[in-house]
Design a protein that fits this description.
Elements: H1 11-31, H2 41-51, H3 53-82, H4 92-114, H5 119-132, H6 139-149, H7 152-181, H8 185-196, H9 198-210, H10 235-238, H11 243-246, H12 250-273, H13 279-286, H14 289-295, H15 298-307, H16 309-336, H17 354-357, H18 375-383
Bound molecules: heme C.
The site of heme C has 21 residues, from α5 and α18.
């Protein structure tokens, strides 16, 4: 019944919206148990794992949902690209807001990784200045500035207030306005999507239960390479650092910073560069170019008459999305898979002494902690902690 009103072409966009709603709800629960202070944050996370199993499950669901959300957004983007939505003037605003939404979502990932303030968080806080420090001209100044203004409270407020506000405004223009104008409004839409996304939600819930983030150290410590091969939301940020494993100096800046920035700018500006047309204009100009192209290829035309026109278009679309998604995710997996994201606590825990147990209070001071300025050491230590330390 409701599936009739429902556009399959927006499946991943709808899934992303539903997951955002889930992140909002699970995030609200977490704020009630989390303490945004350097020397209390990790203890408050550990308390969940030692005393409040249900809240720990909510935290792990928040992590897994973040991963599925990131994947859904990439697929939604791939579909919009293949559908050439950027050539549709009626959708220009949606294109722009969709592209801009990538920024707060990256912000959520970065701040979210910092909040637990264990060694992974310490690593990320130290790597942000290292990363922006490589930008020509403004880099060193920006690096010093970001390190200077960092406090746990600011990271927390950014994660739970500033980024959600920005996201809400953009999502409102991108999708909510349209959804609210439909019969049933937003709540019915989310319920519908919830039903359709049930398999994904189940998978998230089961993964959160089966593969929790190890946080019961030093009573229970993971193995150093735990998490290897298991996709984690961290990967979507780590990918910017991966080039440092292969290039030194400007090569890693080029691949890790300039390339993603250029891709983002091209993506955002596509509709402004390529002169999109409105639907009326396109029809006036020559109508069914898709049909004409199919007719030019006899085997496709006979396939179309065998399958039915709509089905062929759908099959080709699905094939294209699958191929493009594989082309993106296979290399992504191949370079990210070595990250032992869950293993840090195996060495960095209090049973190895205070120095290894808690991130030092002098974490901003690179004279006291010279390791932090060694960009290559830091990246290699994350990916190969058993070899480089
Ligand atoms: C095999 C044990 C081991 C594992 C696993 C490990 N580390 Fe380390 N880590 C070390 C040692 C040893 C040092 C060096 C400490 C020193 O110089 O005194 C270190 C240093 C660091 C530093 C440099 C800053 C400092 O204060 O010395 C950071 C940041 C760090 N580790 C983060 C991580 C993260 C994140 C992970 C998980 C991806 C991780 N470590 C996994 C053993 C380990």
């Amino acid at each position: 019944m409701f599936a009739k009103r429902y556009h399959w072409r927006h499946f991943f966009g709808g899934l992303a919206l539903l997951l955002l709603a889930i992140q909002l709800a699970s995030g609200l629960v977490l704020t009630m148990f989390y303490a945004p202070h350097l020397n209390e944050a990790y203890a408050s996370v550990q308390r969940m794992y030692n005393e409040l199993a249900a809240v720990a499950w909510v935290r792990d669901s928040h992590r897994w949902a973040a991963l599925v959300l990131a994947v859904a957004i990439v697929l939604h983007l791939v579909r919009s690209l293949l559908r050439k939505d950027f050539l549709n003037r009626d959708r220009q605003t949606y294109w722009l807001t969709g592209s801009l939404l990538l920024l707060p979502l990256l912000g959520f990932l970065v701040t979210g990784m910092i909040l637990p303030w264990e060694w992974r968080a310490y690593w990320f806080v130290s790597m942000i200045p290292n990363y922006v420090g490589e930008i020509p001209l403004v880099g060193p100044w920006l690096a010093a500035f970001l390190l200077d203004i960092f406090t746990m409270n600011r990271a927390f407020v950014t994660h739970v207030l500033i980024l959600p506000a920005i996201t809400l405004v953009l999502i409102d223009i991108h999708a909510l306005l349209r959804i609210k104008n439909r019969g049933g409004g937003l709540s019915l839409y989310l319920v519908e999507r919830g039903v359709l996304a049930l398999p994904f939600l189940l998978v998230i819930g089961i993964l959160a239960w089966a593969l929790p983030m190890p946080s019961q150290d030093p009573a229970m410590i993971p193995m150093p390479l735990d998490g290897e091969g298991i996709p984690m939301p961290e990967w979507f940020v780590l990918i910017f650092y991966v080039p440092r494993l292969y290039f030194h100096g400007w090569g890693s800046t080029l691949v890790g910073f300039a390339l993603p920035l250029a891709l983002f700018l091209v993506l955002t500006l596509l509709p402004y560069v390529l002169k999109p047309r409105s639907r009326a204009m396109r029809q006036a100009l020559g109508g069914d170019t898709y049909g004409k192209r199919i007719a030019a290829m006899p085997w496709l035309a006979s396939l179309r008459s065998a399958l039915g026109a709509g089905r062929l278009a759908k099959a080709l679309g699905a094939l294209g999305v699958t191929a493009a998604a594989l082309a993106l995710f296979v290399p992504f997996y191949a370079v990210s898979r070595v990250s032992p994201t869950m293993g840090c606590n195996s060495c960095h825990n209090l049973s190895a002494g205070r120095r290894m147990g808690v991130p030092p209070e002098t974490f901003k001071d690179r004279v006291v902690n010279p390791n932090l300025s060694d960009y290559t050491f830091m990246v290699e230590h994350w990916f190969y902690p058993q070899v480089v330390w």
